[in-house]
Amino acid sequence: MTDVQVRDGGVDQGTGYGRAPQHSNNTLIEVGPGTACGELMRRYWQPVAVSSDITTVPKKVRILGEDLIIFRDRKGRPGLLYPRCMHRGTTLYYGKVEDEGIRCCYHGWLFDVEGHCLDQPCEPNHGEGHREKVRQPWYPVEERYGLIFAYMGPPEKKPVLPRYDVLENLKPGQEIHALMGGFGSTGDGSFDVLPYSWLHMNDNVLDPFHVQVLHSTFTGAQFHPQFALMPQVDFTQVDDGVYYSAQRTLDDGRHVDRISHWICPNIMSVPSIFLESGPSTMVSWVVPVDDTHYTQAFATIGNQLSGGLKIDGSYWGEKTEEERQRVPGDFEAQFGQGPASLHSEEHLATSDRGIVMQRRLLERQMKVVAEGGDPVGVSFDPAKDVVHVRSGNFFRPSEAAE
Amino acid sequence: MTDVQVRDGGVDQGTGYGRAPQHSNNTLIEVGPGTACGELMRRYWQPVAVSSDITTVPKKVRILGEDLIIFRDRKGRPGLLYPRCMHRGTTLYYGKVEDEGIRCCYHGWLFDVEGHCLDQPCEPNHGEGHREKVRQPWYPVEERYGLIFAYMGPPEKKPVLPRYDVLENLKPGQEIHALMGGFGSTGDGSFDVLPYSWLHMNDNVLDPFHVQVLHSTFTGAQFHPQFALMPQVDFTQVDDGVYYSAQRTLDDGRHVDRISHWICPNIMSVPSIFLESGPSTMVSWVVPVDDTHYTQAFATIGNQLSGGLKIDGSYWGEKTEEERQRVPGDFEAQFGQGPASLHSEEHLATSDRGIVMQRRLLERQMKVVAEGGDPVGVSFDPAKDVVHVRSGNFFRPSEAAE
Amino acid sequence: MTDVQVRDGGVDQGTGYGRAPQHSNNTLIEVGPGTACGELMRRYWQPVAVSSDITTVPKKVRILGEDLIIFRDRKGRPGLLYPRCMHRGTTLYYGKVEDEGIRCCYHGWLFDVEGHCLDQPCEPNHGEGHREKVRQPWYPVEERYGLIFAYMGPPEKKPVLPRYDVLENLKPGQEIHALMGGFGSTGDGSFDVLPYSWLHMNDNVLDPFHVQVLHSTFTGAQFHPQFALMPQVDFTQVDDGVYYSAQRTLDDGRHVDRISHWICPNIMSVPSIFLESGPSTMVSWVVPVDDTHYTQAFATIGNQLSGGLKIDGSYWGEKTEEERQRVPGDFEAQFGQGPASLHSEEHLATSDRGIVMQRRLLERQMKVVAEGGDPVGVSFDPAKDVVHVRSGNFFRPSEAAE
Question: Which of A81, B325, C275, C355 lies at 20 to 30 Å from A140 by C-alpha?
Answer without folding.
Answer: B325
